[in-house]
Amino acid sequence: MSDKEKAPRNTGSGPGRRARLGLGALSGLLAGFAALAVAELVAAAVRPQAGPVVAVGGAAIDRTPTAVKDWAIRTFGTADKLILQLGILTVLALFAAVLGVVALRHRRAGAAGVLVFGVVGAAAATSRPDSTSLADALPSVVGAIVAGALLYVLIGRLTSPAGSPGTTSPEREEGWDRRRFVIAATAAAAASSGAGVLGRSLNASSGREAVASRRNVVLPAPASPARAVPRGAQARVKGVSPFITPNEDFYRVDTALVVPKVDATTWRLRIHGQGVRRPLTLSFDDLLRRDLVERDITLTCVSNEVGGPYVGNARWIGVRLADLLREAGVRPPSRGGPADQLVARSVDGMTIGTPVEEVMDGRDAMLAVGMNGEPLPFTHGFPVRMVVPGLYGYVSACKWIKDIELTTFDAYDTYWVKRDWAREAPVKTQSRIDTPKPFARPGAGTVMVAGVAWAQHRGIDKVEIRVDDGPWRQATLAAEDSRDTWRQWTYAWDARKGGHTLTVRATDRTGRTQTDKRTRTVPDGASGWHSVVVTVE
Prior knowledge:
The chain has helices at about 15-45, 50-65, 65-75, 80-105, 105-125, 140-160, 180-205, 210-215, 285-290, 320-325, 355-360, and strands at about 170-175, 175, 270-275, 280-285, 295-300, 310-320, 340-345, 350-355, 365-370, 375, 385, 400-405, 430-435, 445-455, 460-465, 475, 475, 485-495, 500-510, 530-535. With about 525 residues, the chain is an alpha+beta fold. The strands form five sheets. A five-stranded mixed sheet has the order 4-3-12-7-8. Strands 5, 6, 9, 10 and 11 form a five-stranded antiparallel sheet that branches. Strand 3 (about 270-275) and strand 4 form a beta hairpin.
């Protein structure tokens, strides 16, 4: 073999050109599979977030234009992360297949090209906000080295005959040895599968201390319990959302491709920054020993389109955030405090900026430790998250929180603000028709129209329904829990045959009726009236 490592031309009875290209592509795919499997195994020894797919996916999320990211959430919903990962794997597979074909003529160049995979993965892993060590580069680097060596070997089986001169065999063809290639490829696939399964198993068990710590949490009785949900808060109409959203159904919109699993026994929260006269460092047990409050609060994601699903109501238990800030010597701007922004940092590097004034104005802003009667689920921020009624999640609902810094809006732009979202974002007054569903075909006669409306920290005063271009009719409001929760409503519609458009609007307690002007979610939440089209039969 020459220094250029060019394979001999296939001129005899060896595989045809198409078959040869296919075997080269297969070799590249096997090498790519090995890279990912080995990287998964090495990531188990470093940390799951250092794996190349997760690291590259996180970097892609950070660099994706806001409009594209918003489209992905709108189109794929909570499956957007899965779609992203599948996209990354598809690109990697194509890249690996191309390298395999290149290696047929330039063996060393093809094998060396795999190192690009390692460089990209390592750069992505070490540049993540939650990366604290160059060790995060190891999964990608080791995976690429193994893949490069494997591709070199497999291509060698395709281009170098085996056996003694003069021997013949049904498996041996001019220019390659089928038997040796099949053995090498099968062994590589088996070994890669084993490494991948072992790595995934180890990564899955890497958070066992966190799982055990959550299992051992016993939430104390709150010093200030939530009142019982009023009778009549839940509309008795089939198809309307439950008043309290079960944990497993509560929406999740974040950038974490791997859900952080934080051990509550080692978790710490630091409160520091401008205007903090007495910095605090708190453990999870420190929070549990304090007076806890329990409240029903509706949360809304700013990515929620008009009529969208990213809103939910839960019973939260936690420590009043304003009490902790006052203990640290913090004053709101209205009382001369120098800081107007509270920057919350998550263990995964996310930063969320919240107005200090709103946190300390008397509303039930809290560091939540429980949700619907149990410790926070990992997907919703265990062990501790922020909850601030009346503000969209991207400016208030930091999950897996570890640090609170007092600063100013002029001094620091948080993650979403850098991506064209507004610095401050109170929840807009909105309403939604839950039933009938779009394009439903109800029978003529009385049809119950029902849904929810929300204007957290202001409360809902009125909901109205319009059929086609007719007059607005007032709906019946369900009992109100508090001004921080959504409110259900119903309307008995005398439906007549034909196609109809149902439209809803709400008015909050300040007297403001939601606007009919349609806006997208960027920069501070969608607006407009929700409508559904139905056909009455």
